[in-house]
Amino acid sequence: MIKKLIVGVFWGLLLSACNTNQEESKISRLDFPNVLNLKGTIERSSQAGVSSFSDLGTWHSFSLNEDRNLHGVGGFVGPFLMRQQQSFWLSPSIIKLQIKDVDAGELLDLSKAQNVSNTFYPGLLKQTFEINDLLVNLYLFNANKRTSVITADVSNQGNARTIQLGWKGTVFSKIQQSVTTENNRVCVKINNREEAQLLFNCEEITVYDSCYSLLETPEKLDESAKCRISGAFMYLLDKNEVNEYLAAAAPLVKEPGVVLERNEKRWNKYLQQLNQGSEDAVLNVDKYQQLAVKAFLTLMHNWRSEAGDILHQGIVPSYAATYFQGLWAWDSWKHAVAIAPFEPELAKDQIRAIYDYQNEEGMLADCFFRDLSIEGVNWRNTKAPLSGWSIFQVYTETQDLNFIKEMFPKLLKYHEWWYANRDHDQNGLCEYGSTDGTRIAAAWESGMDNAVRFDDAKIIENNRGAYSIDQESVDLNAYLYQEKRYIQKLATVLGKKAVADRFEQEAQQLKEKIQALMYRSEDGFFYDIKLDSHEKIAIQGPEGWSPLYNEVASAEQAKELVKVIMDTTRFNTPMPFPTLSAAHEQFNPQRGYWRGPVWLDQAYFAIEGMKNYGYVAEAKMMAVKLVESAEGLVNSQMPIRENYHPITKEGLNAEHFSWSAAHLLMLF
Question: DSSP secondary structure string, 209-268?
């Protein structure tokens, strides 16, 4: 049933909620319209290139219609169902508004609407249009990890009339045989486990072919009166979820006001937190406010709830790339640190999700997916040891003692796994390696898949199922040094003095080895070294500045290393911090992946590393140059990219990339 509302009682909240906490901050999501371009038109289920919106960990997303596409009036684009390599658009527009002029006996042609606008606010899609003296405000927002709510607010700006509101929709023909109706809902079967459900306040629903249509009870609208109609879309990943989420959605459809108000307050709080920035940050949040919001939105749009073989919620690398719709270990450590100030439970669960895939020996899987029957778990290699950093930073933010009690023994087991399986000569310096004896998996373990420093590496066996390459990597050992320091700090918090003392001693010994064996004074840089001879593998890449970030370098070494970073012929390129020195003959940013492009995580490590040793002016200068030079990063609706070309500064590879966004947030 359509319900009359007193004008302005509720929907005015949407336009005035920014006044709710004016004493705290004037910042609200209404200050950030269309930070990302989420507009598009979907013509086929496999269509790529249209960015979309999600929240609260849903595995589906929606977009805005393009303003020029008047056939999109009355609804939003989608949903897009995130199903790894089998992702697709379920519909060009699954829930579209219908308005019937009862007095005239006809449906209004919404394509003739005037003053159509489509706006994305953080956490909310909105469409506004006018037709036949009716003002329509259409909203879409997420209510929980499986459900989106769509609501239309219709205001009469003319004489009294009787209207009838309803919904209609269609799905792409690939699944048209699966559309059925029961009572007040429409069900779209995806496969034997997954289905989409649409819930309405009307039981008279017509289904034909791949379409459905409904009209609610007619309602008389006096002059200046307002009415509302709502519906819910649910993407359910298991049959066992159906009853739970249908029951939860029923009150949302009847009275969506409470959940929208909660959504408004939550997003305004995020933005107010974000706007505070940090006194010692290298980027000024006031100057780059839009960028900060864009980075935060990127993480939130990549938030996925626990589902299937993903046992805890987390953040995927990129919803826009189907091959990135899983969880990776070192991505996750970075995501958790960045999101912890805003969504601490998500940060903790992001770490738990990776440790869910820890084997008996202590190894963590490289990556895994929601449906392991499609892509499985990559046990061929793990990833660089950053979990101690992540756990400690999340604890610092949350002060959750139970969390570190839970994670500490798992962290210890993982840390010790490295020395049992990746220290070929047991000299206390580890190597990257693999479980299957392949060099490519060993390179993947570093995270720098095709880095030049691994071109001539050979694989050697340590023990059954454990192989190393024949070089000890400076970044790996710098990370292990840092992890020892974090273990020491966590052990101190937990009152484990003996453990803290042991790791303090181990850290100091490892630091001395790295300084003595991996630094070359002739050119002021750190390098990987050959396993047998300790000969330096003289390839200059971001691994060489990891001792700055991890505070392994001596003061004199840091001084020389900063000179190399600031050299315009090597790393101070038009967009700084390429992953291979621009002076190297194999420097190839366009197709190099880790042979030249700028990755923002490595740029962050360099910037923070300089700051660690007192080179604050240089750190701030390079941070500003980094963000201002990158194509589309500042004052643009373009998405944050996986990496960037250091000479042309164009964005490369995946769009909406989470760890790029995470490290931008850390710079603020």
Answer: TTEEEEE---EEE-TT-EEEEEEEEEEESSGGGHHHHHHHHHHHHH-THHHHHHHHHHHH
> Phi first, then psi: what are they for 525, rounded to 5°?
-145, 155
Alpha helices in 422-520 (DSSP H): 439-446, 474-493, 497-517
What token pair was written down for 368?
């895994």
Structure tokens at 629: 């030079």
Taking a C-beta distance cutoff of 8 angstroms, is the pair 463, 421 a contact? yes
Q: Residue 400 CB: number of other CB atoms within 10 A?
A: 15
Between CA 613 and CA 618, with CA 616 as vertex, the angle to 5 degrees is 105
CA atoms of 133 and 155, how far apart (whole Å): 9
For 486-511, what is the mean pLDDT?
A: 98
Token digits for 404? 């570190």
Mapped onto helix, strand or coil, the DSSP state of residue 73 is coil
How far is it, in rounded angstroms, from Cα 530 to Cα 127? 61
The pair of structure tokens assigned to 361 is 């020996």
What is the pTM assigned to this prediction? 0.95
Residue 4 reports pLDDT greater than 50: no
Residue burial 558-574, b: 16+ Cβ < 10 Å; e: rest: bebbbebbbbeebbbbe
- In tens, the pLDDT along 115-130 reads 999 999 999 999 999 9
Separation in Å, CA 52 to CA 40, 49, 318, 420 = 9, 10, 11, 45
For 92-108, write each residue's pLDDT tens digit: 999 999 999 999 999 99
Terminal-residue alpha carbon distance, the chain = 48
Beta pairing, strands 161-170 & 466-469: unpaired
Given a cut of 70, whether residue 21 has pLDDT beyond it is: no
CA atoms within 13 A on the CB side of 68: 2
Q: What is the pLDDT of residues 155-192, one digit of tens each?
A: 999 999 999 999 999 999 766 567 999 999 999 999 88
- The radius of gyration of the chain from alpha carbons, rounded to an integer in Å, stands at 27
Pairing of strands 60-65, 39-40: parallel
Amino acid at 279: E
For the residues 539-559, what does the mean pLDDT come to? 98
**134 pLDDT higher than 80:** yes
Tokens, residue 325:
């719709």
Nearest partner of 524 among 558, 495, 488, 489, judged by Cα: 558
Furthest-apart CA atoms within the chain: distance in Å: 91
Task: Report the DSSP beta bridge partners of residue 120.
Answer: 125
Which is nearest to 440 in space by CA: 431, 451, 425, 430?
451
**Cα(68)–Cα(61) distance, rounded to whole angstroms?**
22
Q: Is 635 left (phi over 0), alpha (psi -120 to 50) or beta?
A: left
Question: Cα separation of 207 and 448, whole Å?
Answer: 52
Q: In the prediction, which pLDDT does 176 show?
A: 55
**Residue 601 to residues 164, 391, 524, 643, Cα–Cα distance (Å):** 54, 18, 22, 10
Q: Which residues contact 495 (CB under 8 A, 6 or more apart)?
A: none
- The tens digit of pLDDT for each residue in 624-667 reads 999 999 999 999 999 999 999 999 999 999 999 999 999 999 99
Centroid of chain to Cα 217: 42
The span from the CA of 144 to the CA of 517, in Å, is: 53
The CA-based dihedral angle spanning residues 309, 382, 479, 663, taken in that order and rounded to the nearest 10 degrees:
-50
| Tokens describing residue 219 | 């309602």
